[in-house]
UniProtKB/TrEMBL annotation:
Keywords: Chaperone, Cytoplasm, Isomerase, Rotamase
Functional note: Also involved in hydrogenase metallocenter assembly, probably by participating in the nickel insertion step. This function in hydrogenase biosynthesis requires chaperone activity and the presence of the metal-binding domain, but not PPIase activity.
Subcellular location: Cytoplasm
Name of the protein: Peptidyl-prolyl cis-trans isomerase
Pfam families with a match to the protein in the record: FKBP_C
Organism expressing this protein natively: Dyadobacter fermentans
Tagged with keyword Cytoplasm: yes
Parts forming coiled coils: none
Length: 142
């Protein structure tokens, strides 16, 4: 059987959990994830984990945060004056807002803290700073 290698388009079923067992993503009930190995379409640790697998193979991989979404970057946690945010925008802790950069790029941010005078928004990826565990099954190689 052939092994998955850089440049192959692969299809993978997966279940992603945090070290405490909390599920953060899964392909269960959906089509498998399809991507080209080595293309940067998925995080490095996931790409590396699939490389070398054969169709039908299953395995569990542990990805340190440096090979996933990286550590939390404190510079991406920003405190804003409450008055800078329009009153009609709901501010719930854990809620997501979209910020717009000058070039028009949209950046999702998570509301971390809300007071009467300021709001703390976090532009880090929600899984930044987290080690990840994936159960993988390679179901196709093209």
């Amino acid at each position: 059987m052939s092994q998955a290698k850089a440049g192959d388009k692969v299809q993978v079923h997966y279940k992603g959990t945090l070290p405490d067992g909390q599920l953060f993503d899964s392909s269960e009930g959906r089509e498998p994830l399809s991507f080209t190995l080595g293309s940067g379409q998925v995080i490095k640790g996931f790409d590396d984990g699939v490389t070398g697998m054969e169709i039908g193979a299953k395995k569990t991989i542990h990805i340190p945060n440096a090979e996933a979404y990286g550590p939390v970057n404190d510079e991406m946690i920003i405190q804003f004056d409450r008055a800078q945010i329009p009153a009609d925008i709901p501010l719930e802790i854990g809620g997501t807002l979209n910020m717009h950069q000058d070039g028009g790029q949209v950046i999702p941010v998570v509301v971390r803290e809300v007071t009467e005078t300021y709001v703390v928004l976090d532009a880090n990826h929600p899984l930044a700073g987290q080690d990840l565990i994936f159960e993988l099954e390679l179901v196709g190689i093209n």
